[in-house]
Task: structure prediction
Amino acid sequence: MSKQLSGQRPPAKQAQRRERREETQRRDQAQLAAKRKRNVIIIGIIICASIVGAVAGSMAFMSTVAPSSPTTNTNQLAPPVGNIQCDAAEQLAFHNHAHLSIYIDGKNIPLPAQIGITSTCFYWLHTHDTTGIIHMESPKAIPLTLGTFLQLWRDQFAQLQYPNQLSSTTGWTVYIGGKPSQGDFNTIELKAHKLITLAYNSPNAHPDTVYNWNGL
Result:
């Protein structure tokens, strides 16, 4: 056999070294591919989580700002009484005043202040003080009756010394402008500067004939 030349590597060792290099390259490529795959999965998870979070946040925001279901009555500050409602501010488009005096068992019963006025709104019929003046203030001219005012007093402000005698139409003598009036006093229409006197078991009551309106 001929001897190998000096410095020449055997073919078997060269093949082994080549196979090791190729194996190392395949392993590195596999690791790189696996790393890329993991990165793609992680990025996908982050994107999905961001989308889910954005949707959840949007739904939560919409639930807080979505308007409540509309109601048939826009005046929810206090229940309406008859044909009058309670608004957050006084309505001055229609603005008149009448006066009511009440006598029971011979004694003058002052009309209480704040009938028709709550902590949040003003009914279209109300009193401010104990002078007996009924304020008629509504967004437009509408028929207003003494019965509606008395119903408001009885149903919503009974704590303001509502006389039970007013719930009955018997036993009363009624005067309008100082003149006797027949019929149910609840039907009396409230008009500007009308003077109404109701007397229960009070034959000596003095019905109002004049009143100083002081510019009202």
